[in-house]
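Cross-check.
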Amino acid sequence: MQSQDVAPRHKSSPGPVVDAERAEAALVEHYPRLVRLAYLVLPPGLGRGRRVLTAHALAQRALPRGRTSATVIPAQSAGRESDPGYAFVRLQVIRTALGAGRPPRRGIRPGRARLRPLLPLVWGLRLFPRSGGADELALDQKLATLSGPARAAYVLRGLERLPDPAVREVLTAAGVADPVAALRQADRLPAQYALLDSPEFDPCSLQARPTDLKRRRQHTRAALAAAAALAVCGALVALPGGGWGPDGAAAPAYAHNPSAEAALDPGRLTRIAPTAWRTSARLDLSVWPARGNLAGDTALLRRALAVWARPGDTVRVSATPGTATGGPAGPPQLLYAGEVDNARVVLFHDGLRIARYAEPKDSAAGAALDFARVDGAAGAEASAVVLGRADGNVRYLTAPWVKAAAERDLLKPDAGAMDLGLTGGVTAPLASPVQQTNGCTSWNVLQLTGEPGTPLLADLGELAPAHLTTGRPDAPQEASGAAGLRAWAPLACSLASVRAQGVRSVNAWEYAEQPLPDATGSAAWVCTRADTWRGDGPLVQAQFHTPGGKYAAVAAQAENVPACGARDPHVLAGVLWKSQEGAWYLLAAGSRDTASVSATGGVSASAQGHLLAVRTRQGAQADLKGTLDDGRSVTVLRGK
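Predicted model, tokenized:
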């Protein structure tokens, strides 16, 4: 359960004593945040791979050796910031990360951040975070122009949400001589703080690539020759009578494979006829024709296929969760090849994935390779894919059966849709909501008109947009109608919580309507379920929307549960609600087939039917349980 009132900020407290156990608990709980903090503050000159390992090393070495004191610095999140253990380890991480950027004085041993980290240690692989978009890359380049203290000031403002006085206090404690100058230098960068939460800056979600293979071969040539001779002798001894080797009947390593070679041949690409979809029994990606003004550029297609099979160290590779990034098993289907804004873009489909290759038009460097799972996509889910992003806007390539495309703001259900136009199946650019940095003031979606109906598709930062629907989970409807648009208006901003999670569809189901105890109207209980392309990891949220409120409040959420889905269309959630007169109530609601609801713990009450309303006190905690009409039990979604 969640109260709708915001807890007041806590004032600074004197430095409490922090022991190793308390600091370790904070480090374990907030480890991903601390490593991200170190990664962002470390000097970019270390390189992405070295920054990853060093950031982990700094976080793991931040524990105190004994008992020490720490200053609690107020911020937006009272739970984390009021913890002296977290304040201590954060300060240690900032101090050592800044030390990595200072040149060592003559005769003085360099700081430990400048030494090669003892742990973690990785041989034969380069580890680096997933690639983000153009905005993340631009921000990373701008951060590289700042001094270490200025980078730390920017990150403490944006990632930790600290006010400037608190930032000065942290920087002073970290040994910065002039924190005011660091803040002034950080002011030169735009306040794109939301981008700091991007996978681009997440050193806990990594990709792996081999190190310099040529150098390793040169250094180990003699050892490999000796090992090969030993392996041959061992095989002769261990395999009498023509037995199987460890690779069975496989060809020798690096032998020519006709299927693999065909997959890299532009002349073998699958190209679908422009009218094939009209007579096909299904409407999916397999009937998309090849489009774009460079669909006949053999050199471009050859480069795109080669990079897909063997991306070099300079290629930025990204993939949705659960999506493989290996090369195609056979000749893929060509969907598009052409110029999009300032890039040449190629889109492939191999039956399971969309692969997007992009290279700058005026440069030989800066190629990008993006992947997204689309297995089983049909109808609305196969109606559009992201073609390109630039300046906070997004362009889509639409299916051949799409007749019109329009832009619609979900927060304005009564406003009309703005026609985008289609040129060769490509839309005009529309503002993407995923890059908003000044709060959620709009949420633009793509509305299509074609044979499957009029679907709404939401950009969540990936190649495949999410399909938005409304209604019962076992019979969802398109959300483009008047009722669907009104249902999604207070929920639109909650889509930010499933950005870059490989989401396939999001359904919004108003499962209950509850009269408020002070007779000011009825509140709506809505369950949203975001299902993924990979099948696991769905996010279920129970949201509470009071009359006249612009946004709904997330009362509870859970991952990897069947609730609110086609297999189990049931849900139960509760919230502490404050009336206009200042009285507090526990409100709870289950789906309409709930026979009774009961509360235990800090609140003891029960009611017949699917609604419960009982007066209580601020901060009360209760456990909710419901019984369905068929006698089965339903439990509350786990709280946020």
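The CA atoms of residues 316 and 368 lie 5 Å apart. DSSP finds 14 helices and 31 strands in the chain. Passed to J.P. for a second look.
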